[in-house]
Amino acid sequence: MNMPRFRDLAPIVLLAATALSGCSVGPDYTPRTAADLGVPDAYSVTAPPTREDLTRWWTRFNDPLLGALVERGAAANTDVAQAIGRLRQAREALVQSRATLLPTVSGSTGYQRNENLRGGGRSFTLPDGTVVDTGGGGTNNFSVGLSASYQVGLFGEIRRTVEASRAQYEASGFDYATVLLSVESEIARNYVLARAYQAQLANARASLAIQDDNLEIAGFRVQAGLVSSLDQEQARSQRAQTAATIPQLEQQYNAAVSRVGVLTGQAPGALKAQLAAVRPIPVAAAATGVGIPADALRQRPDIRSAERALAAATARIGVAKAALYPALAITGNINTNSTSISGIGDAITGGLFAGLTQAIFNGGRLRSQVRAQEAATDVALANYRGTVLLALEDIENAIAALQSAEARTREFTIALDAANTSAILSRSQYRSGLTDFTTLNQQEAALLSARNGLTQARADAAAAQIALYVALGGGWDATTIPEAPPRAGSEAR
Predict the structure, then answer these.
(1) Residue-by-residue DSSP string for 89-113
(2) What Pfam families does this protein's entry cite (predicted)?
């Protein structure tokens, strides 16, 4: 009976291996619905139900410098660069996992020269009289070999590994988007702080100028014997307290500007000249539509990252379970040897080997690994649910903070108008001797408080608006999975 040849066996074995590898153990991942995650149908706070495109939310403040700083930060921030690096690592891990789906092929070639140094051939005599026989009958040996190996993955361990790597790569993309949003919001928030400190400094310096006049008037009235020196001392004390706030505000302003510089990938003092000109606190153009809570599942990159992490953990259960079953490996080789290059194909030998391995006793280690991965999946599910709930909390808190800041702004506007009128009247009456300095002092303090209160309310409104934009998932394109941008200076491969 004729034995089947190597080339006849190879397709049969590979076809059988392919058919067997179609089986995958472990659970298939099923996305959770909004109801599964406990997402309500509506927010518990009042907000516009329409959904808006917030991809470039910073343009709503109509502040070109703010927009330029946010965009520079997205391109140059060091935390963003680290997130991009981690995304590239995840992409290469996916490439490596996919490579295990294909056979590994390697080749070899060699040349050997053998010389017979005895038994004939030419000879010559060295100067010292020694006779050397060069031998003869030397032979050449050429060899070429090709080997291949293939890990079949009968129970889907390889495809489950690729599935987990793909999910992890996608999660890294969403992690990158999360870092990007965080950096954008921090730049905008510190920019608002810088403008707020500028406004508070202007308030303090304006009050200081008035208090200088009050101190001078009090001094004249003391010299004229119209009032006691108590008025002058009160004026001096009030002026000193106002002057003492200026260095602290300057320090806070400097810290905010330095923070913006570092967030945009520059030295702390790089933006001092650019931000030195006083500008108002940015105000968003209009009210923001927040949509429904389920929108956050699609818009928030941290939620989508947690979902992909759950998918990866689920796939790894299959990898762990597959280790309980047999593993099939196929190896083959082709070799040829010849004494001349022209005859290299005259004699070819080859072999094919298929081997199954099965764990028989491992002290329960493999089943423990399955249970550990199932526990890791439970952790990932709990993290996913927790991330969803925290996102909804962020949105509702931002809505409430914005509404509070807007209400305070309206009230402080009224308070400032009243305090300014009261201060003007008190100042006029004090000059005319119709009121005492204590009353004037109280009205001046109330005016400064109202100015700073309005400034703070406006800054809080801008900060809450930024927080709401980010909480809703603005600042990135939610219609795509973020890809790692090409490395600067790298060549296409």
Answers:
(1) HHHHHHHHHHHTTS-EEEEEEEEEE
(2) OEP
> Strand, coil or helix: what is 329?
strand
Distance (Å, whole) CA 102 – CA 59 = 49
In 324-447, where do the E strands start and end? 327-338, 348-357
Are 346 and 155 in contact, with CB atoms under 8 Å apart?
no
**Pairing between β-strand 131-151 and β-strand 104-116 as defined by DSSP bridges:** antiparallel
For residue range 195-237, what is the model confidence (pLDDT) as tens digits? 999 999 999 999 999 888 888 888 887 888 887 788 888 888 8
- What pLDDT digit, counting tens, does each position of 226-281 carry? 877 888 888 888 899 999 999 999 999 999 999 999 999 999 999 999 999 999 99
Report the chain's terminal Cα–Cα distance, integer Å.
53
DSSP class per residue in 34-76: TTTTT--SS-SS-----B---TTGGGGG--HHHHHHHHHHHHH
Give the C-alpha separation, 185 to 70, whole Å: 8
The DSSP-derived string for 294-321 is GGHHHH-HHHHHHHHHHHHHHHHHHHHH
Q: What is the pLDDT of residues 289-299, one digit of tens each?
A: 888 999 999 99
Q: Which CATH class is domain 17-108+157-324+365-471?
A: mainly alpha
